[in-house]
Structures are given as structure tokens and as C-alpha cells.
## 1
Amino acid sequence: MEIKNAIHNEDGTINVEINHPKFGWIPFTSAHDDPSEIAQEVTRALFDAEISPKKPIDINDYRNPLLELISIKSQYYVESLISTYPDFEKLTFETQKSEARGWVLDNTTKTPNVDILALNRGVDREVILSKINTKADQFERISMAIAGQRQKFEDLIALATTVEELDAINISFTV
């Protein structure tokens, strides 16, 4: 049997291409405990073949999923803070914040959207404007803390030179 491009795998198997009589050159993974006839033929052919060393570990195969994970976890953490609000209301947050911040700078500033909110909530507009500013400040500080932690993890991942160093990174977001 003709074989080529044999490479050891970390699990003890060997990836190889075999010249199959019916299909031509095809990939095959040889395992020492495979009792099939073709596996036995490949095993015999491997004794005479030059086998390259184990496929080198590409740290990026480990790094890239970790980078995705920190993005997903950080986004999930921040979204969990506002998960009880319906989507349509979340779309009003920037308008609320903009009017409330403008009002802090000049309390004669018109706040037509917050006025509607206050009227329908049955709460004084100045109370609502104060609450909006407080919540916006809190959300921004928490978001910055999570962004800083995400960036720290990104830096640690970029600096890691081994899979073991990547495994040692404990990705957890807290405030």
C-alpha cells in the first residue's frame, strides 16, 4: 500500500494519505487498535514510512476562541444589567440620557420626551431626570469596568506564549 504525508497526532493516531485502489489518494487516520483490514495494511506500511513529528501546536487555535469567549462573556454581563427592560424601552435610553444631561447643565432646557415619561409614570419630571442621570452614570461606570477587564484579558491572551499560559487565565467579570 502506498502512503504519504504521515503525521503523528497528540492522541496517538497518525493522519496519513493512502492510495486507495478504488478512490485514489484519500485521507486516513490510523489507530493502533483499529482491527480493520485497511488499518492493518496502513500500519504495516507505516513501519517503512518516514513519519513527521507531531503536528506543532498553533497557539492561535487556542487564542482565537478565548478572544471570542471574553467578548461574549463581557457582552452577556453588561446585557444582564438591562435584561428586564423591553427592547423598545432600551431604544429610548440615549434620548432619556441626553435630555437629562442637558437639564443638569441648564435646568431650563426642554425635555419633551422625559416629560412624556414623567406624565405617564405619574412622577415629577425632576425626580425622573435625577433618576435617569443616576442610572446612566452607574451603567457607564459598570460598562467601563467590564470593558477594562475585557481588555485586560485580551492583553493576557495576546502575551501568552503557551497553551498552559492560556489555560491559566481565569476569565471572570465582576464589579
## 2
Amino acid sequence: MRVIYLSILALGFFVHNALAQNGPLRVNITQGVIEPLTFAIPIFEAENLEAAAVATEISRIVAADLTSSGLFREIPFDRFISRRTTFAEAVRYPDWRAINTQALMTAAVKTTSSGRLIVKFRIFDIFSGVQLGSGMQLAGNTKAIRRMAHKVADQVYERITGEGPYFDSKIVFVSESGPKDNRRKRLAIMDSDGEDVQFLTGNENIVLAPRISNNGKQVLYTSWETGFPQIYILNVGTAGRKPLPTPKNGMGFSPRFSPDSKRIVYSFERGGNSDIYLMDLATARSARMTSSPSIDTAPSFSSDGRQIVFESDRSGTQQLYIMPVSGGTPKRISFGNGRYGTPVWSPRGDLIAFTKQSNGRFGIGVMRTDGSEERLLSASFLDEGPTWSPNGRVIMFAREDRGPKGAPSLYSVDITGRNLRALNLRAPASDPSWGPVQP
């Protein structure tokens, strides 16, 4: 197995990866409707006794990640004909073809006395009867089992689909508790699959609209800690936070980072009128970007940092506009029936996601950056607040049920409108913000 070393410093991971071959196995995800690729993952081989429980856990997380994408469908264990016992064992292709397996993943796990966890794995194209690319190996800390599994899933996903990874990423959100008319809220962070929830703030004060930076190290949010809405910036690693200065005699809200995490855009309201402001975080100085007798809010940077998209009622109804960060006249891009809000530019730069209110329902949609090719991906009593996965393939948002006992929960959907699924969280949740793939 030829290897190239790539250090992943945050948790001491190492990826050993050879250049992938251009094999015939590939998921075609350019169409709106696809047939998921069938895959089989036998329980990973434990190369020592201590790795037995770990091997099972990692294999199940990998399978769950791939299945959650909607692009893969797992073959159940009880259909297996071949019962693999060792990682080195030759693949019996006819046995896997007989149960309609398209891709097979085999892996082995071992732990060391120094607390290291090593996973090596291979992917096989069953119908072509070949290994897909070279074998791979990951090494990390035994305390980071979930991250190891997400990294493995990312490598498999990337090799088969050609898309960028997204499983090993974090999502910041608002965790809620209590009755609907007295909801308590606090910031939390979790894995992309909804596991390993950790709280970043207490629930003593109302917090809204967290936005994680592109490097995953900081979070912007609005808090009523002082009895008045104010923008705060929080360090994810330490949970230390501080307020950001905004102009006097008004309130700042709806902040969002630039792609390089050095600037933010936000809304500032004064006298019933709100405009978009740009702040340099190094100097904490703000500059006004829009000036009109209207409500301009919810700004978001383009992926290259040169433009912003925001919502405004300057035309009489709530619509979407784009403008250069350097200044200029905003250009309206939404012209469909209904109202548009909370726009977010895709990390790929090709699409803008938004919330749309039409015919008494709220839905999540996407459009090209010039407003063309608009399409809705979801609709319900209240779907709102889209956020993009790091690879621009999946959108997460909050959905709230109707009625006095209705509570928000988080959903995700593929940009084709397929694979709408709810995250299995233990408490109501809203305002998701998807961070980058972890280093």
C-alpha cells in the first residue's frame, strides 16, 4: 500500500493516502433523482483485543454517515454470503454480486499502548471486480473515535462521489427548553450527525442567530444579556466571549463572518430603519454599506468575499439583493411570488439559499446568484434559517410545528430536494450554522 502522509494537527490524525485511480464505480449526482449506490460494510476487523468494541462502533458510524447522505444504501448483515474474518482475506466478488452489492468496504482497527487508534481500509468495486484506488490508513487518539469514523466516511464519500467531504464538521445551533411562551435558549455545538452535543453558553439570557466562522474557531451571535440586543463573539475552544462595538443609539444584530474570518457584516437598527454595516475585526471599526428608508438585514458574504446578499423591503415587500462589498447600488435578484429572507451564499459560490414565505407556508429554496433557476426544497408551517454544508451539497434548517406546543427541530435536505431528514436531537433546536470540515 503506497502512502502519502498528511498531518491533521487538531487531534493528531494522520491520513495515509495514495492517488485514487479513475475506477468505473461512481455515484452520478448531477440528476434530481438518483438510485442510491448499494454498499456493504462488514464489521471492521479488530487486530487486538482492546480494539474489538471500537471496531464495531466505527463501522456503524461510517455506515450511518454514508446512508444519511441519501447517495448510499447499506446491504443488511443478514444478507451477507461471505463472512470475512481478516482484512487480508481475498474478496469473493461473486458472493457480493449475488446480493447486488456495488461497493464493499473492508477495514481493520487496532489500538496501541500509547493511546493511538489506527484504522486501515479499502474500497472495492464489486461489479468490475477491482479495488477502487489504493488502500488508506488513518491514525489518531483513542479518545477521538467519532472523529476517526467521520474521517473514514469522508474519505469513502469523496472517493466514490467526487464531491468534497462534510461528515467531520461541527454545527453550532440554539438549544431550547421550556414551554413555547417561555422558551430558554443557549448556544450549543454538535457533530454533523447530531451527536456529541456540548453547550457554549448558559440559558440565563436569550441568544439568537449564531454564525460560526469559516475556520471553525469563533461564533458570532446576538444576546439580550444586558437587557438590550448586542452582538457577541465567542471563542469555540475556550467559550470566552466579548461584545463587539456597534454605532451608538441603536442595536446591532444578524452578524456573519467574511470567508477569511477577518470582517463581519451585520444589521444596525436606529429609529425604525435598519442598514447593513461592515466591521473590521482587527480595528473594530464599522462602515455603513446601505442607506435607504427601508429594513435591510440578514447579510451574507459571497464565497470569494467580494459581494454580499441581504434581504430588504425597499421595493415594498421582503426581497433579496446583492451588492459589492466595495460599495455600489444593490441589485434585486428575487422576483417570484412571496417574500424572501435569510439568504446564505453557497460555499461553492454558485447558489444562494433562502427562506420563502408564500401562501401561508414557509419553505427553504435555492436560486442562482442572478436569481434564475429558483426552486423550493422544502415547505411546511415554518421552515427557516438555511445553512450550507462545507461542500455545498446539503442544507440544514429549522422546522417548527404548528400550535401552542410546537417546538423547533433541525432538518437537512440535499440541494436536489431529495433526502429530507430530521436530526435526532434530544431537545428542541433552531438557528443552525454549519462549520468547516475539521483539520
## 3
Amino acid sequence: MAESAAFRYLADINIGFGVILQRAAFMEEQSKLAERILDQIADAVIYANYSGTIIRWNHASTALFGYSAEEALGQSIELIIPEHLRAPHWSGFDAAMKSGALKLQGRPTLTRALHKSGRRLYVDMTFAIVKGDAESEVLGSVAMARDVTERVERERAARRSS
């Protein structure tokens, strides 16, 4: 009788371990899928931690800004911010990190950015705060950017000629 209880106990442990392994495999699969999605979308996706250090840089970020992931990761987000916009950027970034809220509340905004070559870009950017397990824990910020330089320059040229 004791042997049969011990076998049942071991079988239960084995089943429990199997469930844990299945969940771990599922979570790993989901993580890989999320990485594939981020790397294949057309918009640049940049995640900067609480101090403004670039932690995530997708393929579209490389195409838009000219820096490879290896060059951008670990660098300050200032890498892509023109000098004259850095002070207002840090003011807004610091306020968002402290409050856990964004002034723009996820609405896209037109701004300037810097390409690795030094060329200035017009980009539509959308920002979101990334929070931890606790709602009040702010981990950083994610930005999605799209190059709109040609459109903006076309609109400005049309206004000048009219």
C-alpha cells in the first residue's frame, strides 16, 4: 500500500513537472514570436529603460536611423535626437518616468530625428510607458517611429509655391 502511494506521488510529481515544461515551452515560443513580430514590422521600435538607455532596437530602426542594433544597444536615446531637442526630450522623458503617464497619451507626434549620417529626418512617433508587474513600477518607454520626411518636405514645398 505504501509503495502504491509512493508511486502515485511520483506520478503526480512527474505530471506536474510535465505541465511546467509545457508552459515553459509555450512561453519560450511566445517570446520568439514576439521577437519575430517586432523585427518584421515596418515601423521602428525602440525601447529605452528608465535611464534612457536603448535596450531594444528592431530592424526597422536600423533602416530608419542607420545604426545597427550592435551600435545602438546600450547607447543613450540621444543617439537619434537632434541637439536642439535634447533638453525638451529629457524634460518630458523624466516627467513620464516619474509620473508613469505621457503628456501625449499615445497620440502620434511629428518631430525631428537624426540619422547616423547626420541627416535630419521628420518622423511620426508614438510613445508608451512600459510598466512592470506593479502598476506603479515604470521600467522605461517604447517609441514607434515612421519616416515622414518626404511627405513633410512635399507639403512645405507646396505651401511655398502657392
## 4
Amino acid sequence: MPAKVKPKPSGGPKAFAQAAECLKTLAHPVRLRMVQLLLHGRYTVGELAQDCEVPDNVASEHLRLMQRCGFFTSEREGRKVYYQVAEPHLENIMQCIESRFLSE
């Protein structure tokens, strides 16, 4: 009897390269905290910077990198710019991180 051939999972080197780049972008403590915060609501650069204990310009650079991967979007209201999560899969990633590293 011939061996049963298992179907291969989808994906190829190009898709995994893109995934790896975005995961590298996430792999920073300030960015992970920003994801965690933004999964619970909208925040301004100043609010995120204060919570993450970094200067506003550093927070802006982190946010720019995250937007480039499509993780966040921004919306201007008057003089303030609010950031929010655009990628719903971030919630699953954060749940894994929280259960593995933040649970007591």
C-alpha cells in the first residue's frame, strides 16, 4: 500500500520573508508595549511616549515603522494624531506573548 501524501501547508520563501521582516519590526520592547496599549484603545504619540518612557520623537519613529508594516493607522483630530491597530492578528500575537512572558 503506497504511503499517504500529506498536503503541504501554504506559503513560500517570499511570503515568509515578508512575515520575518514584520516580526523583526515587532521584536522591540517599546513596540510590543505600544501594540499592547493600542489593542485597548487609541493613543497619541505623547501618550504612548510617556507610557513607554521614551521621547516623543523616538515614539514617532517606532510608530512609523509599525505603520510601514501595516500594523497601525493614524487619524488626525484637530491638532492631535491618534494611532490605532489596523492589523487584527496582532491580538493573537499579543495573547501569546502575554501568556508566555507576562503571566504570573
